[in-house]
C-alpha cells in the first residue's frame, strides 16, 4: 500500500525535526514548510493526506493557510490538525468553522499525534 | 413649561372639578338664603313657631353649605400647589436626563419615542427633536441597532429583561457604542412593561482595553507554550532515541536553550507588566554615568566576543552625573546591546558612543548587522512585534526587549529612536535630558 503523506508546517525548526523523526519512524512520508505561504506552494505539487500546522507563523498563519487551502481545493479531503493553545480562542473559532479540522493542545505529545494519525487512517480504510 | 402644565390632563381635571364644586356651592348658598327670606315673609303668625324650626334647620343648612364652600376653596389651593410641585419635579427629571453622559431615548407602549436627550445627536448623528414622536425605523439608520429596537415593536410587554448589542456607528470608524434596551414598569406593577428605556453608551475605551488584554494573553500564551512545546517534544525524543549520544546531546542542548528562553521571557514580562501597572519600586540615585555605561558595555562585550563580534567604546573624557535607576537602566541598555549582537553579521562591529551638550547626554549604540526594514522601524517598540523578515525569523526572540527598553527610557523622560538601513546596520539613539532624568511617575 502506498505511503501516507503528511505535511508539517511550523516556523520552529526544533518542532519540525522531532515530529519528522516520529512520523518517519511510523512509516509516513513527510514534507515540511516553515509557514503557510511555503505550504501552499507544496500542496500544489503534492496533495498530502494530513496537514499538521502551527497557528501563529510569520508571513502566513496556520489559520490563513487553512482557509486558503480549503478555498483553493474544495474537493481536497486532507485532515488539518492545528497545534494551538486554548487562549488562542479567536483563531480556534475561525479555524473551527472549516471542515475536517482538529486541534491539538500545546505542549504537544508527538506520540499522541502518531496515535491519532494511526486511528484516522484506520477509520478511513474501514469506515464504521 | 406653562404650556406643559396647562395641557397636563391631571391639572385640567383638578381645576374643572374644583371650579364646578365651587360654583355649585355658591349657587346653593344663594338659593337657600333667598328661600329662607321668602318662607318667613309668607307665613301667618300661628305658623311662626313652626317657621322658627324651619329657620333653624335652614340656618344649619346654610352654615353647612358655607363650610363646603370653604373646603372647596382649600381644595382649589391644594390643586394649584400640587400642580406646581408636579411641574417642578417634571422639569428636574428632564434636566437630570439631559445631563446624563449617555444617550437616552424613551419609547412608549406603542414603540413611539416620547423622550430623547441631546446626547443622542453625538451618539447617533440625529437631533433629539427628530427622534421624539417617531418610531425607531423613522430615526435609526444603523441596521444592527434597528434590528434590536424593532424586536418588540407592537408588543413591548414581551421585553422582560435588558438586552444589549455593541455596534460601530456607520460614520465613525474605530468607535464602539453599546445600546441597551430595558423595560420600564411601575413599582406597583412590576410585571407590566409600560415603555422601554434605550441607553446609548460609548464603550470604545472598554472595548479597546479588552481587545488589547485578549491580544496580550494570546501572545504571552503563544510565547510561553512555544518553548514548552519544544521541551516536551525533545523530552519524548530523548525517551525514544535511547542511548544514542549524538541525539541525546542535541536534544539536551535544545531543552537547555528553551528553558533559558522561557526564563528570559518571564523576566521581561514581569518587568514590563510591573512598569505598566506602576508598582515597580524605583530607586533613583545620582551616579557616575560614564562609569556605569562602561560597566554595562564591558559585561555585554564578553558575551558578544564569544560570537566573533568586535566592540568599540568611544566616550568623552568625562560625562555629567545623572539621576537614574541603575537596575532598570541596565535592563534597557542590555536589551539594546544584546539586539546589536544578535542581529549582527559574523565578524561584525558593535559601537557605543556618547556626546554631551548643555541640555542632554546622547548615547548611540550602532551595529553593522542585518538592519531593519523601513516598514518595521515604527513598530519595533510595540510589545510582541516581530518582523516577518527572514533575518529576524531566523533568530530567537519574543518581541519584548525593545518595548521594555523604550518604556524604561521614557520613565527617565528620555527618548529612544532608531536609524537603520537594511543590510548595513542599525543605530539606536538614546537622548537623556540632564535636568529631566528625574524619573517620571510610573503610570
What does this entry look like structurally?
The complex is a heterodimer of chains A (128) and B (443). With 128 residues, chain A is an alpha/beta fold. Chain A has a single domain (5-125), classed as Rossmann fold, CATH 3.40.50. Chain A is 45% helix and 20% strand. Chain A is built from 5 helices and 5 strands. Chain A has helices at 13-25, 36-45, 62-72, 89-96, 110-125, and strands at 5-9, 29-33, 50-54, 79-84, 101-105. A 5-stranded parallel beta sheet of chain A has the order 2-1-3-4-5, with helices on both faces. The longest helix of chain A has 16 residues, at 110-125. Chain A is globular. With 443 residues, chain B is α+β, with helices and mostly antiparallel strands. Chain B has 4 domains: 2-99; 103-202, Beta-Lactamase (2-Layer Sandwich); 207-277, Helix Hairpins (Orthogonal Bundle); 285-433, Histidine kinase-like ATPase, C-terminal domain (Heat Shock Protein 90, 2-Layer Sandwich). Chain B is built from 13 helices and 12 strands. Chain B has helices spanning 2-7, 9-42, 48-99, 119-124, 136-139, 143-149, 204-241, 245-277, 289-305, 326-342, 374-377, 390-393, 401-411; strands at 103-107, 113-116, 163-167, 177-184, 195-202, 285-287, 310-314, 322-324, 349-356, 360-367, 415-421, 425-433. A 5-stranded antiparallel beta sheet of chain B has the order 2-1-5-4-3. Chain B has a 5-stranded mixed beta sheet with strand order 7-9-10-12-11, with helices on one face. In chain B, strands 6-8 form a two-stranded antiparallel sheet. In chain B, strand 11 and strand 12 form a beta hairpin. In chain B, helix 2 runs antiparallel to helix 3 (48-99), helix 9 runs parallel beside helix 10 (326-342) and helix 10 packs antiparallel against helix 13 (401-411). The longest helix of chain B has 52 residues, at 48-99. The A-B interface holds A 11-12, 14-15, 18-19, 21-22, 25, 34, 56, 58-59, 83, 85-90, 106-111 and B 214, 217-218, 221-222, 225-226, 228-234, 236-237, 240, 254, 258, 386-388, 393.
Amino acid at each position: 500500500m502506498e505511503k501516507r503523506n503528511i505535511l508539517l508546517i511550523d516556523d520552529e525548526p526544533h518542532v519540525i525535526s522531532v515530529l519528522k523523526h516520529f512520523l518517519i519512524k511510523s512509516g509516513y512520508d513527510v514534507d515540511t514548510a516553515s509557514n503557510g505561504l511555503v505550504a501552499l506552494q507544496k500542496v500544489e505539487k503534492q496533495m498530502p493526506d494530513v496537514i499538521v500546522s502551527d497557528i501563529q507563523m510569520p508571513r502566513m498563519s496556520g489559520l490563513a493557510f487553512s482557509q486558503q487551502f480549503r478555498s483553493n481545493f474544495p474537493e481536497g479531503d486532507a485532515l488539518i490538525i492545528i497545534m494551538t493553545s486554548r487562549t488562542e480562542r479567536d483563531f480556534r473559532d475561525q479555524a473551527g468553522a472549516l471542515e475536517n479540522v482538529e486541534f491539538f493542545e500545546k505542549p504537544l505529545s508527538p506520540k499522541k499525534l502518531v496515535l491519532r494519525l494511526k486511528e484516522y487512517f484506520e477509520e478511513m480504510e474501514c469506515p464504521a | 413649561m406653562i404650556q406643559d402644565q396647562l395641557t397636563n390632563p391631571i391639572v385640567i381635571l383638578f381645576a374643572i372639578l374644583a371650579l364646578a364644586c365651587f360654583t355649585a356651592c355658591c349657587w346653593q348658598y344663594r338659593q337657600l338664603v333667598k328661600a329662607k327670606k321668602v318662607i318667613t315673609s309668607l307665613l301667618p303668625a300661628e305658623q311662626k313657631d313652626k317657621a322658627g324650626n324651619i329657620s333653624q334647620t335652614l340656618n344649619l343648612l346654610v352654615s353647612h353649605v358655607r363650610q363646603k364652600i370653604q373646603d372647596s376653596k382649600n381644595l382649589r389651593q391644594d390643586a394649584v400647589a400640587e400642580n406646581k410641585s408636579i411641574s417642578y419635579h417634571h422639569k428636574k427629571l428632564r434636566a437630570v436626563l439631559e445631563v446624563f453622559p449617555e444617550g437616552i431615548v424613551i419609547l412608549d407602549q406603542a414603540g413611539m419615542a416620547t423622550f430623547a436627550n441631546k446626547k443622542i445627536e453625538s451618539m447617533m448623528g440625529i437631533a433629539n427633536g427628530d427622534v421624539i414622536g417617531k418610531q425607531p425605523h423613522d430615526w435609526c439608520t444603523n441596521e444592527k441597532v434597528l434590528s434590536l429596537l424593532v424586536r418588540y415593536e407592537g408588543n413591548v410587554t414581551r421585553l422582560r429583561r435588558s438586552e444589549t448589542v455593541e455596534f460601530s456607528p456607520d460614520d465613525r470608524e474605530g468607535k464602539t457604542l453599546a445600546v441597551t434596551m430595558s423595560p420600564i414598569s411601575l413599582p406597583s406593577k412590576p410585571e407590566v412593561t409600560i415603555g422601554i428605556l434605550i441607553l446609548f453608551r460609548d464603550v470604545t475605551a472598554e472595548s479597546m482595553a479588552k481587545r488589547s488584554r485578549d491580544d496580550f494573553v494570546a501572545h504571552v500564551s503563544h510565547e510561553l507554550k512555544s518553548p514548552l512545546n519544544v521541551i516536551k517534544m525533545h523530552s519524548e525524543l530523548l525517551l525514544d532515541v535511547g542511548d544514542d549520544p549524538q541525539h541525546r546531546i542535541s536534544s539536551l542542548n535544545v531543552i537547555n536553550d528553551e528553558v533559558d528562553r522561557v526564563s528570559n521571557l518571564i523576566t521581561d514580562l514581569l518587568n514590563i507588566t510591573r512598569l505598566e501597572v506602576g508598582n515597580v519600586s524605583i530607586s533613583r540615585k545620582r551616579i557616575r554615568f560614564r562609569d556605569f555605561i562602561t560597566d554595562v558595555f564591558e559585561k555585554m562585550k564578553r558575551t558578544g566576543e564569544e560570537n566573533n563580534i568586535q566592540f568599540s567604546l568611544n566616550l568623552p573624557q568625562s560625562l555629567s552625573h545623572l539621576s537614574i535607576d541603575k537596575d532598570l537602566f541596565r535592563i534597557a541598555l542590555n536589551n539594546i546591546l544584546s539586539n546589536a549582537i544578535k542581529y549582527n553579521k559574523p565578524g561584525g562591529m558593535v559601537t557605543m558612543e556618547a556626546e554631551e551638550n548643555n541640555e542632554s547626554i546622547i548615547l548611540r549604540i550602532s551595529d553593522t548587522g542585518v538592519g531593519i526594514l523601513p516598514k518595521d522601524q515604527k513598530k519595533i517598540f510595540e510589545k510582541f512585534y516581530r518582523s516577518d523578515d527572514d533575518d529576524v525569523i531566523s533568530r530567537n526572540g519574543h518581541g519584548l526587549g525593545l518595548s521594555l527598553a523604550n518604556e524604561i527610557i521614557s520613565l527617565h523622560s528620555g527618548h529612544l529612536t532608531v536609524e537603520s538601513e537594511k543590510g548595513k546596520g542599525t543605530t539606536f539613539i538614546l537622548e537623556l535630558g540632564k535636568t529631566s532624568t528625574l524619573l517620571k511617575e510610573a503610570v
